[in-house]
Automatic annotation (TrEMBL), chain A:
Belongs to the binding-protein-dependent transport system permease family. The chain crosses the membrane at residues 9-31, 74-93, 105-129, 141-160, 181-206, 239-260. Its main location: membrane. InterPro entries: MetI-like, MetI-like_sf. The keyword Amino-acid biosynthesis does not apply. PANTHER family: ABC TRANSPORTER PERMEASE PROTEIN MG189-RELATED-RELATED, ABC TRANSPORTER PERMEASE PROTEIN YESQ-RELATED. The keyword Cell membrane applies. This is Sugar ABC transporter permease. Residues 70-260 form the ABC transmembrane type-1 domain. It is found in: Cell membrane. It is a multi-pass membrane protein. The lineage of its organism: Bacteria, Bacillati, Bacillota, Bacilli, Bacillales.
From TrEMBL, chain B:
Residues 305-327 are annotated as: Disordered. Residues 317-327 have a biased composition (Basic and acidic residues). Belongs to the binding-protein-dependent transport system permease family. Residues 77-288 form the ABC transmembrane type-1 domain. The chain crosses the membrane at residues 20-40, 83-103, 115-135, 162-183, 274-298. The keyword Protease does not apply. SUPFAM superfamilies: MetI-like. It is found in: Cell membrane. The lineage of its organism: Bacteria, Bacillati, Bacillota, Bacilli, Bacillales. The keyword Cell wall biogenesis/degradation does not apply. This is ABC transporter permease.
Length: 273, 327
């Protein structure tokens, strides 16, 4: 399809205007993070700092126990991702490749869990984890991931439904047992949608604020989001380290997204259509 | 023969149990982390349940209190609906415009797509911090840019009139996910449909109304439902950006429930609040679904209808033939 030059100019200008809205806040955070204090609190604001103080990042990192927060965030993110990949692939396989009694009923039940507002189960879950002695540990954030999430299961199932049935029948004739079929044949085929699940989960868990806020109290157990938020509440004027840590916090999900962009776009189109 | 039969029986028995083994993780998780808490929360809503101390059965008192004795309940509900009313159409519109832009056959689209999506991978905490700083009344760059354009400079987070607008602006930053969903759908519309329309003399707008929109109605439905649910549950951003203020002008329903539970320690009352929102969300979803039969078109259905028509025609032709032969 060819388009006219005028059309092109209009499209580009609109794109650039929108880009400002999406990019400028990042840019402004960066500019703020590398300024001196007097520059930050000067008005009109300065767009180009006199000196570029990249050392601000190091100072900000050392001003609180961000090493520990970072480690906690990584632990939670990595373990939940492993948990989701194992459980969701098994469950999706069960729903996609077998016929069994109550299958449709159970699947509708699974999908309906996506509609439950988080605040309905929040309080009982808090009490449940409290009874187990899990409050102020990372367990409430990690363990549920090993039992699967409706959205990821749905996504993987959609993918698995499109593979012809002959595949496992041939393997069965060759004497493979049911788990071997899943493990040796289907798991390798599912690589692309599994990457998508991993990426979505990393973004979601890395950014989670409410879960850690409710379950963690001790600063040694804090995740990055909590560390960052605690920063903001008390010291309103420490804007430089706040911006520096905000930018550090943003890096992992952005990198993950950039590397896995292809899978996200493909995965979304595969799961909706 | 009997040996083989026995083997076969054993095989089918395993085959019958195997699927349940595969879905077992989810079943256990559902009972432990969804159904159990869901039921328990309903029970709790009938109790006066402090965080420490004895729980006391009070019947539907929590619900009566909510509807008759708590002005904050109505206030929060109203604010949340107001927010949803601005947020949902705005985000849907912006997402659709962006998706249309990045499907144009122009160089650099991948770059723009990445830029538009990036804020969507950023946490609510980071969003609230960055935008909070930009909205700052004294040193904020946002008002400086507005003054540059000769526009009004509101006291964003301090002025009850503007605080909710600030939250809409900051939360619209995450529109990228919706855009991506629209984008993948628009891209899958066959090209020859547009070409045929262009030959027939349909302009860009006409093509958009007659081809693009009808083709993506299922995706619009998906996006409407998910964004209504998200809007009604908004919490992180208000908690960090305004804390519900100024003058409770951004005291969203999510914050109302959260504070009742974890600040005022009224777990029973908060459970009743949460269940009310659950019912509201289910009603909304149901309403949207009900209305969808009027405006959502599924490809498979259209095909099915065509097929049915064809078969009907065939049948009547056959019947005509038979009638003819009989005669």
């Amino acid at each position: 399809m060819k388009i006219s030059k005028r059309h092109k100019i209009i499209v580009y200008s609109v794109l650039v205007i929108f880009s400002l809205y999406f990019v400028f806040p990042f840019l402004w955070a960066l500019i703020t993070a590398i300024k001196t204090e007097p520059e930050v609190f000067s008005y009109p604001p300065k767009f180009i700092p006199e000196e570029l103080l990249f050392g601000n990042f190091v100072d900000a990192w050392n001003s609180q126990n961000f090493g520990v927060y970072f480690k906690n965030s990584v632990i939670v993110t990595v373990l939940t991702t492993i948990g989701q990949l194992i459980s969701c692939s098994l469950v999706a396989y069960g729903f996609a490749r077998y016929d069994f009694k109550y299958k449709n009923f159970l699947f509708v039940l699974l999908l309906s869990t996506m509609m439950i507002p988080w605040d309905v189960t929040m309080i009982p879950l808090y009490m449940q984890f409290n009874m187990l002695g899990w409050i102020n540990t990372l367990k409430p954030l990690i363990v549920p991931a090993f039992f699967g999430s409706a959205y990821y299961i749905f996504l993987l199932r959609q993918f698995l439904m499109n593979i012809p049935k002959d595949l496992e029948n041939a393997a069965r004739i060759d004497g493979a047992n049911e788990f071997q079929i899943f493990y040796k044949i289907f798991l390798p085929i599912m690589k692309a949608p599994l990457v998508l699940v991993a990426v979505l989960n990393v973004i979601l868990v890395w950014n989670d604020y409410l879960g850690p806020l409710i379950y963690l109290q001790d600063k040694a157990k804090y995740t990055m989001t909590l560390g960052l938020a605690s920063f903001q509440g008390v010291h309103e004027l420490q804007i430089i380290p706040i911006m520096a840590i905000t930018l550090v916090m943003v890096i992992p999900p952005v990198l993950v997204f950039i590397f896995a962009q292809k899978y996200i776009v493909e995965g979304i189109s595969g799961s909706i259509k | 023969m009997p040996i083989k039969k026995k083997k076969e029986k054993k095989f089918t028995l395993i085959r019958k149990r195997v699927p349940y083994l595969f879905i077992m993780p989810w079943i256990i998780g559902y009972l432990a982390f969804t159904l159990g808490p869901l039921a328990f929360s309903l029970v709790m809503s009938l109790f006066d349940w402090p965080i420490a101390g004895e729980a006391k059965f009070i019947g539907i008192d929590n619900f009566t209190k909510m509807f008759t004795a708590d002005p904050q309940f109505y206030n929060s509900l109203l604010i949340t609906f107001k927010f949803a009313l601005i947020f949902v159409p705005l985000n849907l519109g912006v997402a659709l415009i962006l998706a249309l832009l990045i499907t144009q056959p122009i160089k650099g689209m991948k770059f723009f797509r990445t830029i538009f999506y990036l804020p969507a991978v950023v946490s609510g905490v980071a969003v609230s911090i960055i935008w909070g700083w930009m909205f700052n009344t004294e040193y904020g760059v946002f008002n400086y840019l507005l003054s540059f354009l000769g526009l009004e400079e509101p006291s964003w987070l301090i002025d009850p009139k503007w605080a909710i607008v600030a939250i809409v602006i900051a939360s619209a930053w995450g529109v990228g996910t919706m855009m991506l969903i629209f984008y993948t759908d628009i891209k899958s519309i066959p090209h020859d449909m547009y070409e045929a329309a262009a030959i027939d003399g349909a302009g860009v707008i006409r093509q958009f109304i007659s081809i693009t929109i009808p083709s993506i109605t299922p995706t619009i439905l998906f996006n409407v439902i998910t964004s209504v649910i998200a809007a009604l549950q908004q919490l992180t951003l208000v908690l960090l950006l305004t804390g519900g203020g100024p003058l409770k002008s951004t005291y969203f329903y999510g914050l109302f429930v959260y504070n009742n539970a974890f600040k005022h320690h009224e777990l029973g009352y908060a459970s009743a609040n949460a269940w009310f929102m659950f019912i509201i969300i289910m009603l909304f979803t149901l309403m949207i679904f009900k209305s969808s039969s009027a405006w959502v078109f599924y490809e498979a259905e259209v095909k099915k209808e065509k097929k049915e028509k064809r078969e009907k025609k065939k049948k009547s032709e056959v019947k005509n033939n038979e009638d003819f032969q009989k005669a």
